[in-house]
């Protein structure tokens, strides 16, 4: 046999050898539903594992699961710790090929209770801010959805059980504004509108003022630069060694300025510096950075350090546009914006709080129409980079344009908001993380 013929025989022989596919086993967690928050601390987990080769064993966090031949499922029970839990599932076939999947579960015993302080009158579009002394101040807002802004304020003492009408009024009535506690304890009040039905640039409030908790007065603050013309925006305070800065993002406002102002949804992030008793604009609409979404009625919540999470939805008659991203204000390269997953249920004019351990929570809000009010509450884990629903049996009161204020990482106070009929609510409620059973 010649050399060429010998090579041909070898090639043909090789082609006759059986081809063995190297594919990993598939894994599916059949139950429970890991997208829902667990109230109980112990759960039963069932896993389906499949491959064209027989499955020899399945492990959950390196512990062998029991096989139920009748159901063709692998079962185990697991204890959950408070907060985020990570489960690594490994499926081994008879040839030792391994498939791996990672699942996340959130355990959080909680309750909603209406045994909370009520407002003297209904209010939505307001702010609710915890002062340095522990008191809570509710400022401005409107009594009806689309109605005129109010100039009054209410105070809840740290040791009190009822809101009291503050014996001082805003210099300018406003709703959809922001209220930020300054390092000296005063509250900086920025933007907003004279009406909840914002239809014109002329409705926007440019006056800057502060609430002084020592004198219980609202005082005008000097301002220098291109004016603030936005409502339903968010504000972030940065108290740095180089100064005190406030960043405003999004909202409904003037998207042109100049001689031809136009009302629209803003995507710019303007920065201001507080020096003494004057607020200086450090940039303009044209020089400010533009973020990835034009958004209003969103939330911007600090998750750790200088990192904030932005969640919201822009609704139009024909479409919706979701905003979900992280902003790192202290990144070495400057402002750093990265993607985050969208909310499970799109919403706007919702409220957000934090739960510690890099968890945050979203309450209520609405969709395209003011009557499309949501009761589904969602928890976001920054470590898992995903949302989880609270059980349907535990839902908040229908409301939008309300506030969620952390009194602690285990206790959040929801205040006011608008109902489906357009009237504002006086009722408040607590979201409470309860002790483990």
Structure description:
The N terminus is likely disordered. The strands form 9 sheets. Strands 18-25-24-21-20 form a 5-stranded mixed β-sheet, with no helix packed on it. The chain has a 4-stranded antiparallel β-sheet with strand order 1-2-6-5, with no helix packed on it. It has 437 residues and is mostly beta strands. A hairpin with a 2-residue loop joins strand 3 and strand 4. The protein contains 1 helix and 36 strands. Among the domains are: 85 residues, Immunoglobulin-like (Sandwich), CATH 2.60.40; 105 residues, no CATH class. The longest helix is centred in the N-terminal third of the chain and has 13 residues.
Question: How do you describe this structure in short?
Answer:
Helix content is 3%, strand content 43%. With 437 residues, it is mostly beta strands. Strand 16 (209-212) and strand 17 form a beta hairpin.
Key terms for this structure?
single chain, 437 residues, mainly beta, Immunoglobulin-like, 5-stranded mixed sheet, 4-stranded antiparallel sheet, 36 strands, 3% helix, elongated, disordered N terminus
Describe the secondary-structure layout.
Elements: H1 3-15, E1 26-31, E2 42-50, E3 55-60, E4 63-64, E5 66-68, E6 73-79, E7 83-93, E8 98-107, E9 110-113, E10 127-130, E11 136-139, E12 153-156, E13 163-165, E14 178-181, E15 187-190, E16 209-212, E17 217-220, E18 222-224, E19 230-231, E20 234-240, E21 243-249, E22 252-254, E23 263-265, E24 269-275, E25 278-281, E26 299-304, E27 307-315, E28 320-328, E29 336-339, E30 351-356, E31 359-363, E32 378-381, E33 386-389, E34 403-408, E35 411-415, E36 428-433
Parallel strand pairs: 18-25
Antiparallel strand pairs: 1-2, 2-6, 3-4, 3-7, 5-6, 7-8, 9-36, 10-11, 11-12, 12-13, 14-15, 15-16, 16-17, 19-22, 20-21, 21-24, 22-23, 24-25, 26-27, 27-28, 28-29, 30-31, 31-32, 32-33, 34-35, 35-36
